[in-house]
Amino acid sequence: MTLTHIECGYLPLVDSAPLIIAQELRFAAEEGLDLSLIRQPSWSALRDMLALGHIDFAHMLSPLPIAMSLGLGGMPAQIDALMVLSVNGTVIGVSADLDAKMRATGWVNSFDDPKIVGQAIFAATSNRVRIGVPFPFSMHRMLLDYWLARDPNFDADRVEIITVPPPQMAAAVKAGALDMFCVGEPWGTVAVQQSDAVLVLPSRAIWQFAPEKVLGARRGWVEENPGTCHAMIRAVYKAATWLENPTNTPLAAEILARTQHLDLPDHAIDPALSGLVVTKKGDAPLQTDRFLVFHEGAANFPWRSQAGWIAHQLAKWHGLDAAQASQTAHACFRPDIYRAALAPLGVDMPGASQKCEGALHHPTAVASTRGKMILGPDTFFDGAEFDSAQEN
C-alpha cells in the first residue's frame, strides 16, 4: 500500500503522546499515512510553521487555533481544531524560596486546593510575583488568570507574566528568574528534579476537564484533504485509546523517553502518565486522579462549548465583541469532521456538540449514539458554570 506522507509539528511534552504513539505503533500506517513528526523549539515556531504551510498538522495549545483565527498574535490564519489530544496534564509550581515563605505562613501543600494556595502566595510576599507560562494564548495562562483573579487579595500589579518555552522552565526557576510557573509535563517534574521547585497544584484543580492540546490544521488544507484528515483523526484516536490503558504505561514512557522524542529519562515522564506526582524532591508521590486524560470521558471530542469558553476569555483580554469571538471559536472546533472521521469505527458520540461547562459534578450518563457515554466531572474550582449557547 502506498502511504500518504504528512508532517506534523509538536513540542516535547507528554501530551504529544497520541501523535508519537500513532507513529511508533503504526496506527498512522494502518490508516495509510506516512507520519513524520517535526519537533519544534517553541509554540511561536510551531504556530508559524503551520500558518506558512511548512507542516500539515500541529500539536497545539487549545486556545491557539481560535486566537489565530481571530487575528491575534504574530501570525493570523484560519486554523481548525480537528480533535482534542489531551485534557489536563499541566502543573503549577513555585520556586524553593517562595515555597519556604508560603510554609512560614502556615500553609501545608495538599496539591489540590486553589483557594488556599492563592491565599498563601499573596500572604507570603509583598513583592511582584513573576510567573512563567509557555505562551500567551494557552490554557496555562487562562487557568492562571481565572484562578488568581478570584483571590480576594489579587492585585494585577503584583503579578508579572513571563513567556518561557516549556523545556527552559526549569532553568528559569533555577536562575531565579521565576517565582512561579505553569507548564505541561514533564517540565514541571523536571523543575522539581533540577531546580528544587515545588508543585502546588495540578491544572485539574482549577478546571477538572480543561482541553489542553488539540490537533490543528489550516482550514484551506483541511477542505482540500478531507480523506487525509479523517485518516489522521482515526490514527490518533486509536493511539489515545491505547494510552488510556494503564497496562501500556511502561511502554508509553519508554517510547516517549527516546532521543528522537522527549529525550528524557523514564522517571521524568512516568508521573504524568501514571498520575503519581512528586511535588517536592524527596517526598513520596501523590496519586492524582485524572491528572492527564487522553481518551476517557469523550476527551477527544472537540466540544464547541469548550471553544466558547476560550473565546470568552480572549474577548475579555483583547476587548473583542464576545458574540463574534464565540462564533469564530465555534467554527474552529470541528465536531462535524470528527464525527465523520470516526463513523467507520462505530465510536460512541455525544448527542450534542455543546454542553454547559462546569455543570457535571459527578460522572454522568448522557445521550449518545450508542447510549454508553459517561461524562464528567468537569467543574470549575469556584463552582461557576459556562453555557456557551446563552453567551450568544
What are its keywords?
392 residues; 5-stranded mixed β-sheet; 17 helices; alpha/beta; globular; 2 domains; D-Maltodextrin-Binding Protein, domain 2; 6-stranded mixed β-sheet; 39% helix
What does it look like?
The protein is α/β, with parallel strands linked by helices and 392 residues long. The strands form five sheets. It has a six-stranded mixed sheet, sandwiched between helices. Strands 7-6-8-5-9 form a five-stranded mixed sheet, with helices on both faces. A two-stranded antiparallel ribbon has the order 11-12. The chain is built from 17 helices and 17 strands. Helix 1 (17-24) packs across helix 11 (226-244). Strand 15 and strand 16 form a beta hairpin. It folds into two domains: 4-88 and 211-262 and 293-352, D-Maltodextrin-Binding Protein, domain 2, CATH 3.40.190; 90-209, Periplasmic binding protein-like II (D-Maltodextrin-Binding Protein, domain 2).
Spatial sequence of strands, sheet with the most strands:
2-1-3-10-4-13
Q: Please, what is the average pLDDT?
A: 96
Radius of gyration: 20 Å
Return the structural class: alpha/beta
Q: What percent of the residues sit in helical stretches (DSSP H or I)? A: 25-40%
Output the CATH class name of the largest domain.
Answer: Alpha Beta
Oligomer: single chain
Number of strands: 17
CATH architectural type of the largest domain: 3-Layer(aba) Sandwich
Q: Catalogue the unreliable spans.
A: none
State the major sheet: 6 strands, mixed
Number of helices: 17
Bulk shape: globular
Distance between the termini: 48 Å
The CATH superfamily of the largest domain is Periplasmic binding protein-like II
List the domain count as a whole number. 2
